Amino acid sequence: MPSLSSDARFFGLDLHDLARQLREPWDGASTWPVFSWLNPVTPVWLVQADGRDALWADGQRTYASPTAPASAGAAAFTAIEVPEDLLLRRSVRLPAMGAADHASALALEARTASPFASDDLVWGAASPASAGSPLSLVLASRKQLLAYQSTLGNRVPAGSVPEFWVFEAPDRPLVLGGFGEARRLAFAARRRRTGLVLLASAVAIACLIALTPSLQLKLRANEARAAYAALAASAAPAIARREALLRAADQTTALQQRLADRIEPLRLLDVLTRILPDDTALQSLQLVGTKVTVTGFTANASTLMQLLGNQPGFRDVRAPGAATRVPGAEKEAFTIEFTADPAQLGVRVASRVPAAAPSPVVAAPSQVPSVPAAVSVPASTTAPAPAPAPPAVARPAPGGAVFGGTSAKPAQPAPRPGAGGKP
């Protein structure tokens, strides 16, 4: 049966310490050259072992002089240099490891090599020059250090909690932990955080300044989009009416195109009424598009075809069949087809003809053969005509109704003398 282990590891990484391991590489970021200017300069009043006092600031010692007096009031923190006769030194070599593991290994080494009790032990270690290089471990007794502080008298500012330093080099102090260094480190951390906040604020302001034109353009685009949407909503009824008007215009254009080649029946009847002789009678008139078919009776069908062929607006005049004459009849039965010209007999032409202009009626001669071949009756008259005279009654031709004249009536016999009617 497999055993359950509580060791939280993933590919050899301890998940319990994952956050710490991710944070450790950034712990020393404050010492990087790019961020070192964020570290505050903290003045420390240094009580040296040689009997002199100095103001320590950023690795530099400033001693009191008549031209540049230095006092403990210029520094917020105090440090005491520990004499060498109170220290124990040991050289330690440790492998490369994390900061927390490094501190734990040094603490174990200090407790192992210390001749002092665990509650009396204070120690400090210098940072190694490189990974695996030896480092100096310094041990001291807390009781001896406090006794040494009491011998300094008024050299230590009253009310201060001093630190204890050991100098490995003139400009590199080694701090023994467990005294007043926590206050100085907390102060430096606060100043560093303040600097980071100010830096982040400056970067944010610079980004906002750089993005302000783009943001303004975006806001203007949003306002324009909203205004366009509002305008489109308010103009929707007008746009709908415009579209309806355009559809109606398209329908009207299509209707006009369809009616462009349409022959006006009344115009055609008017022209036929004017040009047909009185001895011609039509029985039927069929209009299909521009093709006209007429049937009826006339005295001479060939002369009638010639008359229609010479009429402006008529073309392609032909007879689909021969004219026939019933024995004993005076007229021939004919069927004639021709094409009407929409340019002269169409709807548009009829709409341009003035309604007030009377159309003159041309009375054709009674005998068809006497009509000359070049007779041409104009389709319309534009010149104003004088007051029309009563139309002359042509000689009636035998037969039925005649286009261009009046219907022929049989002659009434004269009343006999002595009849019983009124005169």
From TrEMBL:
Pfam families membership: PilN
InterPro entries recorded: PilN (IPR007813)
Keywords: Membrane, Transmembrane, Transmembrane helix
Segments crossing the lipid bilayer: 194-215
Bias (Low complexity) ranges: 374-384
Region Disordered, residue ranges: 374-423
Name this polypeptide is given: Fimbrial assembly protein
Organism of derivation: Simplicispira hankyongi
Taxonomy of the source species: Bacteria, Pseudomonadati, Pseudomonadota, Betaproteobacteria, Burkholderiales
